[in-house]
Amino acid sequence: MITTKQRAELKSIAAKMTPAFQIGKGGVNDAQTAQIDDYLRVHEIVKFKVLDNSLYTAREAAEEIAEKIGAEVVQTIGSKAVLYKRNEKDPVIRFKAK
């Protein structure tokens, strides 16, 4: 579970990112979920966009993917969502001290 301060740091990182994945009319499938999980293993944070022709909202897609791979939803704004999953072996994102 991430704290409020950690969430704020993750949001500031995500603001500079471009979406790495798109969820389209096919919705959330296992192959795409696996790709996102692999991406998170390397980067720890991912931003994706839900296209207008999708049957999902950004919140629904983010929650479904997060549940399947054990990630946390950082934020959803409009059609974009951000997920975070800490890499225990080799962390990429180092949070500032309290």
Give a quick precis of the structure.
With 98 residues, this protein is of the alpha+beta class.
What's the CATH architecture? 2-Layer Sandwich
CATH superfamily: YhbY-like
Residues in helices, as a percent range: 25-40%
Task: Give average pLDDT, whole number.
Answer: 94
Please mark out the parts with pLDDT under 50 across 5 or more consecutive residues, or reply none. none
Secondary-structure class: alpha+beta
Compressed to H and E, one letter per element, the order equals HEHEHEE
Rough shape?
Answer: globular
DSSP strand content: 15-25%
Euclidean distance between termini CA atoms: 16 Å
**What is the total domain count?**
1
CATH topology: Translation Initiation Factor IF3
CATH class: Alpha Beta
Query: How would a crystallographer describe the biggest sheet?
Result: 4 strands, mixed
Evaluate the radius of gyration: 13 Å
Kindly report the spatial arrangement of strands forming the biggest sheet.
1-2-4-3
Number of helices: 3
Description of the structure:
The protein has a single domain, classed as Translation Initiation Factor IF3, CATH 3.30.110.60. Helix content is 39%, strand content 20%. The chain has a four-stranded mixed beta sheet with strand order 1-2-4-3, with helices on both faces. The chain has helices at 4-15, 30-43, 58-69, and strands at residues 21-23, 45-50, 72-77, 80-84. The mean pLDDT is 94.
